[in-house]
Design brief:
Blueprint: E1 2-3, E2 6-12, E3 17-25, E4 30-38, E5 42-48, E6 55-63, E7 66-74
Parallel strand pairs: 1-7
Antiparallel strand pairs: 2-5, 3-4, 3-6, 6-7
Length: 75
Amino acid sequence: NPVSNEVKINIDSKFRGNLQIRILDVLGREVSQQTFEKVFTQEEIKMDLKHLEKGIYFIEIQDSRGKQVRKVVKE
């Protein structure tokens, strides 16, 4: 999933409530974080990556049911 200055996260689930979205570097350090209130079944969240160096990052999406992690490559 190569990205440049912005990543779009599409969330499609019946869950409604608070989501925490974190961007982690390859060492597991948090480089960005956003809390989001999910109201609709489908949501699109945009996160700015301009401040990050090129490299591999992980997007961690956590809600009350658990968390998911996806890898992205900033070019």
